[in-house]
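Protocol step 6 of 9: fold each sequence in the batch and record its structure tokens directly after the sequence line. For illustration, a two-sequence batch is reproduced in full.

Sequence one:
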Amino acid sequence: MKIKTRTALLFIALSAALAAPAAAEDQTTHHGRSNAAERFDKADTNKDGKISFEEFAASLPDFMLADTDKDGKVTVAELTSYLEGKGAKPKRAERRAKRIVKRYDANNDSAITATEIQSRQKKVFALLDKNDDGSIDNNEWPSRNWHHGKGHHKGTKKDNGQNSAE
């Protein structure tokens, strides 16, 4: 699998994990800036033009908040309830919860832990940090929103239609 495809797939997984509702089809906000640029600015909490791993991890949803029984593991049922509490419709919440657990569950025990979440975040961060300097700058940050679905990035400037998400 080509590096660009792997990077895109990992970023898709990250995007799918975000707790916010699905992004609108329009790639710009009402301020004329791209959603990607706004996400970069929001994640860059110290406004130094770079995102450290700590800033990156803090900008992502804390799925451990869904651990209602406080056993250190988040199950599909717990995550589904959490997402419903954030406004997701029940069927959509369950589908998203299943996808998230499947992607983050490194030991295949049908639950995710804080360690598994952090491990996944480190992998995605490392892929985004193309120059390996320990931070993500604006040039390394993906320039557009990625939507899930087959062939979602086919034909973009990034791959000229040569790669697919399959």
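Sequence two, same batch, same settings:
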Amino acid sequence: MSAITSANLANAIVKLVAVDILNPLVGELIMGNLVNRDFEAVLATAGDTVNVPIPPSMVANDLIEGGTVQTQNPNLGNAAIVLDKHKEATFTIPDVTKVIGHPQLLTAYMKPAIIAIVEAVEKDLLKKWSYLDANTPVGAAGTGLTEVTLDAAETALFKAKVPRSEDKYLVVSAEEYATLRQIARFSEVDKYGSGDAIITGKVGKLKDFSIFRSQYVDKTGTSPVNTHNLAFAKDAIALATRRLPKPLPGTGAIAEYSEMGNFGVRITMSYEPNTLAQQFTVDILYGAGILRNTHGIQVNS
């Protein structure tokens, strides 16, 4: 049996943090859980480019009796996503050994760091609205969302040949979510809806869109303010993440990776002499970009 030393205790603490951090982090994501996530357990640095593959298009040919098939040579496309975002959230723990005996302390320290990382990722993904320009935007600035607007967005994605098997999502602001909850045809059982919007507050699904709300939906302009809600299928936007290198051994810092479901962060623990405390840094290297432009549409309000 190995003796307990400060070295293996330090490694145990970082491993404990790595195991506990990702479940709540991924659970807090909205856009991050809906878009195409591309992850590989390879090292990268800020500024590197990741090529996310895009399936090629093919055509159906008429086969004449006695004839031969027409061989197609499709090229696998790709979207170049630059890993240009390196976000971190750092905090200190005065007596880190207490974390071992009281794991709830870890949650108290970790939650603000998790929320900070989630906010950064969500904001960057929601700012991709301006790049979704293959389909003509629907809705108008300063005007609440209506059934007609949602219908127009769904029709546009259908005409753009988004496969019926693909789930479609609509991410809206808090104000527009409230507007959708008050559309009688969807919220009241005696019209057509389930009544869930009144009972639980959850809109659920409208016009083939699963509806989500986010505090980070991008807004521009002043009079009127334009709220840039997004309607899309998974392959419209890609989120690419890669591993950051671990610190060199013997430099006084210990790092572990926390990875799950094509998403990952690095956790680093080091000593902070100015505060006589252990410093923890949660950081992530990622990039976001458009994968299939035709699979998304701006829904303004």
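Proceed to step 7 once all outputs are recorded. Observation for sequence two: Confidence is low (pLDDT under 50) at residues 1-5.
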